[in-house]
Design a protein that fits this description.
By secondary structure, the chain is an alpha+beta fold. It is 38% helix and 22% strand. The chain starts with 5 loop residues before the first strand and ends with a strand.
Length: 432
């Protein structure tokens, strides 16, 4: 008897932060134009010109604007570019709505980041054929667009790597397949830089070896690849041939707890950039903990280097917390112990564990006043953002370019809102 066939869907929200903000502004608040139809980004402080591009609209791509580049550079490319700040509370709600929709159809969900997940369908060939699974994916895509107000790409295959590659073929609002028999025609002609986990440095090395496409990497001499790129080259050559991802690339997000991870748009080579990303990750994790009225007793940081070395370290907290600032400070401490400050990092994540209900806090002598103040501010921020959106209130931490570029400021027209400043470095609180 043949084992049941497995189908893996990779579902990725198109330009998630930009799309989620645009959907809220247009569909809920009735604002025009829809940011998805004009050159726009989610990013840093438009007036102070701080930060990086978190997400971009399709029209912004025409100006060669890239995720991860500096806001000031993006504005030079397109002076009329619309810059909006991120709304983390909204993004958590949108992500949760997406995952809940997926759970309606499968109990095997691996959420890779806030805006993408794999959905596993085992034994569905008894109900659907391969062609019918594609039709089902189209129906699911349309259902998400109609009910949740944003578009997704769905990649379909039999393993994680190929489904993720399929989902990125062309965007937005598309369904693509990449089964093993389709690799040669669909994946091999692509530039080698399009292969998952191939960064700029690796692309440069491969180009110097005369390898320009994924197919050329797949069919290259194995000893030559090993000699020049060592283990990372062997792994990437396996990817080029359709081999699946190593388990550590995605299973950590399936652990019990609350976490978020990302593959950096460029290699993480400085402590400052790492902290930029850690603050953004802790902001979303903290918002999820508070939304579910739970606290975490353990925080861990994990990363994958450009050479595919995986490292993780965790810390037991003195007392359970749901406060973004405490999560961030402890994540930084763990990261500083974990990273050698030299090896480039491609993937970075923050995870919390030993979750417990929000049953109060065991105080120590030093944190009573500080914790109460930060906890109250966090909950106030969540409530105001939930009611009025990110424009009504934001963290001073996200306005400081030396701490994080992951959030933006307010336009002059929006300055009527209140900003509560939380200076993480100095542990000060102020009203602006």
């Amino acid at each position: 008897m043949m084992p049941p066939e497995r189908y893996v869907f990779h579902i990725d929200a198109n330009s998630a932060f930009l799309s989620w903000s645009a959907s809220y502004l247009t569909n809920v608040l009735g604002k025009q134009p829809d940011l998805r139809t004009i050159p726009s980004i989610v990013g840093g402080d438009q007036e102070k010109r701080h930060g990086i591009v978190l997400a971009k609209s399709i029209p912004a791509k025409k100006y060669n604007i890239h995720t991860g580049e500096a806001i000031v550079t993006a504005l030079q490319k397109c002076p009329s570019l619309v810059v909006i700040p991120p709304d983390y509370g909204l993004y958590v709600k949108s992500s949760r709505a997406l995952i809940e929709k997926l759970r309606y159809y499968s109990d095997q969900i691996i959420q890779y980041s806030i805006d993408e997940a794999w959905v596993i369908f085992d034994g569905f060939e008894t109900i659907y054929g391969k062609g019918q699974m594609v039709n089902f994916a189209h129906d699911l895509k349309e259902e998400i667009k109609k009910e949740l107000g944003f578009t997704v790409n769905i990649g379909i295959s039999n393993n994680f790597l190929l489904s993720k590659m399929a989902g990125g073929f062309s965007k937005p609002d598309k369904v693509h397949t990449l089964f093993p028999e389709e690799i040669q025609n669909k994946m091999w002609p692509l530039p080698v830089s399009e292969l998952f986990f191939v960064g700029r440095a690796t692309t440069k090395k491969l180009l110097s070896l005369g390898i320009k496409t994924i197919g050329e990497l797949a069919n290259a001499d194995e000893q030559m690849i090993k000699a020049h790129l060592k283990l990372p080259g062997q792994i990437l050559q396996g990817y080029a041939r359709g081999e699946d991802l190593q388990p550590y690339m995605f299973t950590h997000v399936a652990n019990k707890g609350y976490g978020n991870s990302l593959t950096a748009p460029q290699d993480i080579t400085t402590v400052q950039y790492a902290r930029h990303l850690l603050l953004s990750l802790c902001e979303t994790v903290g918002a999820r903990l508070r939304a579910d009225h739970v606290k975490a007793s353990v925080i861990s940081v994990h990363f994958t280097t450009f050479e595919f070395a995986y490292a993780t370290k965790q810390m037991q907290l003195l007392t359970p917390t749901d406060v973004t600032e405490e999560l961030y400070l402890n994540a930084c401490r763990v990261f500083d112990m974990l990273w050698d400050k030299h090896t480039p990092i491609r993937q970075l994540g923050v995870h919390t564990g030993k979750i417990q209900s929000d049953a109060g806090r065991q105080y120590n002598l030093f944190d009573l006043q500080k914790y109460d103040r930060l906890s109250a501010l966090n909950k106030t921020i969540d409530n105001i953002r939930s009611r009025f959106g990110e424009d009504s209130i934001m963290r001073a931490s996200f306005l400081k370019s030396n701490i994080s570029p992951m959030s933006g400021g307010l336009d002059k027209e929006r300055r009527s809102g209140v900003t509560i400043g939380i200076d993480i470095e100095k542990e000060n609180t102020r009203i602006i």
